[in-house]
Design brief:
Layout (H helix, E strand, L loop, with lengths): L2 H30 L2 E4 L8 E9 L8 E7 L9 E5 L5 E4 L3 E5 L9 E9 L5 E3 L1 E6 L4 E4 L20 E3 L25 H4 L8 H9 L11 H27 L1
Antiparallel strand pairs: 1-2, 2-7, 3-6, 3-9, 4-7, 5-6, 8-11, 9-10
Keywords: Membrane, Signal, Transmembrane, Transmembrane helix
Organism: Streptomyces violaceus
InterPro entries: YcnI-copper_dom (IPR012533), YcnI-like_sf (IPR038507)
Length: 250
């Protein structure tokens, strides 16, 4: 091979290698980022299962401050217990799941936390859509499903939601009773009052006691006629004594 031909071949090979490397770097960037959930050996209907969530940082200038996890059907915030996470971060239940948040992490640091689920539902897989917030206001939406891997702009790499595959339930496994809910603060009416009847010791019983001291004539207390009769006797006796004294004097 002539020298000029060899030089041209080397140059072409170098250019092709550079292009291949650039493409590999460009496509590897988005693919390296991810959000995952893990629970080794998890089976449907398992109880007190620890789920480990990890969300990769995609920002080169801001730290992660919050993860919002949207719970799948069959799991509620009442079933979740916070086990561990970034230092100082706390869990707060929401209407659709929960958040774990706190002071921002270092730039480039991934966010990981662990929660315990009271019982896993009887399904084949669980999808935990996750919103990842940064200190500069950016939000990564890890909500993509396998049949819709493109991102909001149709770029194709997407932000797939964390998915936990479950093995079939163990023989004899059954759903536990629902999580206990807080009792209402307003006291419920007693069976007697609810049916329109007053319970013993209420005003009706007190009224009956008062009725024992009255006769059948308009509810007048018995003490009243007794008092009147006593007054008549006293007045009559006084009048008789006064007449007798006058007769004696005469």
């Amino acid at each position: 091979m002539h020298r000029p031909t060899l030089v041209r071949s080397v140059r072409r090979l170098g250019a092709l290698t550079a292009v291949t490397l650039a493409v590999a770097v460009a496509t590897a960037g988005p693919a390296a980022a991810h959000a995952e959930v893990e629970a080794e050996g998890a089976r449907a209907l398992d109880q007190n299962v620890a789920l480990t969530f990890s969300a990769a940082s995609e920002s080169s200038s801001a730290g992660i401050t919050e993860l919002e996890v949207i719970l799948p059907k069959g799991v509620t915030a009442d079933d979740i217990t916070y086990k561990e996470g970034p230092e100082g971060w706390k869990l707060e239940p929401t209407s659709r799941g929960y958040t774990v948040s706190g002071a921002k992490l270092d730039v480039g640091e991934d966010a990981e936390h662990v929660v315990v689920v009271r019982q896993l539902p009887d399904v084949k897989e669980l999808v935990f859509k996750t919103l990842q917030s940064y200190s500069d206001g950016r939000v990564d939406r890890w909500i993509g499903l396998e049949d819709n891997a493109e991102d909001d702009h149709g770029h194709g790499h997407g932000h797939p939601a964390p998915v936990l595959q479950l093995k079939p339930a163990a023989p004899g496994a059954k759903p536990v009773s629902p999580s206990p809910t807080q009792e209402p603060t307003t006291a419920a009416p007693s069976p007697d009052t609810a049916s329109g009847e007053q319970a013993p010791g209420t005003s009706e019983e007190s009224g009956a006691a008062v009725a024992d001291d009255t006769d059948g004539d308009g509810g007048m207390p018995l003490a009243v006629p007794f008092g009147i009769g006593a007054a008549v006797i006293v007045l009559g006796g006084g009048a008789w004594w006064f007449r007798s004294r006058r007769s004696g004097s005469a």
